[in-house]
Predict the structure.
Amino acid sequence: MTERLITHLRHVDLAVPDHARQLDFYTGPWGLTPEHSDTGLTFLAAEGSPEQYVVRLRKAAEKRIDLIAFGVATAADVDVLAARLATAGVQLVSEPGALQTPGGGYGFRFFDNEGRTVEISSDVAVRAHRRIEEGESIPVRLSHVVINSAEPEATRAFYEQHLGFALSDTLVHPRMGAMMWFLRVNSWHHSMAIARCPHPSLHHASFEMRGIDEYMRGTGRLLRAGVEKIWGPGRHLAGNNTFSYFLDPSGNTMEYTTELEQVDEDTWHPHLYDFTQPEVSDQWGTANAMNEFVAKRSFNDPDKGLFVAPPV
C-alpha cells in the first residue's frame, strides 16, 4: 500500500461565468465569508475552519473545476509526493515552490488521470477561526468533494496508488455494478468520492454543519430563499451523514451535511451497499426518492478544464 502523506482536504476552486451571482449565493444564503477578494476572484472561508479558504470563485467564460487542494504535514512531504508522481509519469503543472495564494505555504500542482488539476501544500498559515455557536446555521468546514468520472475504476486506482487514499465503502447497483467509491485520507469516512458518470465533472461539494439542528435550520433557510433543492433532507447509510443537496446559480450541486462518520482505520472493512435499497440512500426515509432527475442534476455539465491549468 502506498504510504499516505496527505492529511486533509483544504479547498475546492471553481471557475464560473457569473461571478457576481455566485458570490451573492455563497456569502448570502450559503453562509461563507469572503476573504482576500480581487476583481473576478474571491476566496471564501468557513467561519469554523482554520483553512484560509474552502471555496475559491474565479470569473471565467466557462464553468469548470479549477482545482482540488489537499494538505500534507511538511514541506518534505510535498517534495516526496512531487517526486513520486513525476517518477510515475504523472504530469506536473508546477514544481514545488512558494504558493502565491492567501496564507502562502509550499506546494505544487499536477493533473490527475482525467486531467483535473490537484494541488498539494504544506505550511499554509492558519486562519483566525472560531467555534460555531448553537443555532448558528453556517458551514463549519468543507467536509468532502465528490467528482464524476468517465473512468471511475482508473480514477480510484490513481488516488489509491499515487496518493495513498483508502477505500471506505462502495455503492453498487444490481445491474450496473459499482457506481460510487468513498475514499478517505484520515479517520473521516470520506474526503473524496468518485461517481460513475458519462463525463468528468463536479458531482458535489459538501459542507459540515455544527449539528442536526443547525443543519436543518440551514436547509430551511435555503428553501425559504427559493434555492433549488435537488435531494434531501435525509441520512445516508455510507458515512452515516445527513444530506441536503442544492444547486448554486451555475448549476453546481452543493450539500449541507453533519455527523459524517469517523472510522477506526485499523479495523475498518469496506462495505458494498446496494443503493436500490431505500435505507442505503436515506436511512430516515424523509428525502425525495433518488431518481433520474436527481442523478441527471448530479452529472453536472462536462468539465471544460481538463488538462488545462487554471491561470491562478
Residues 66 and 72 are 20 Å apart (CA to CA). The chain has two domains: 6-122, 141-299. The longest helix spans residues 75-87. The chain has a mean pLDDT of 96.
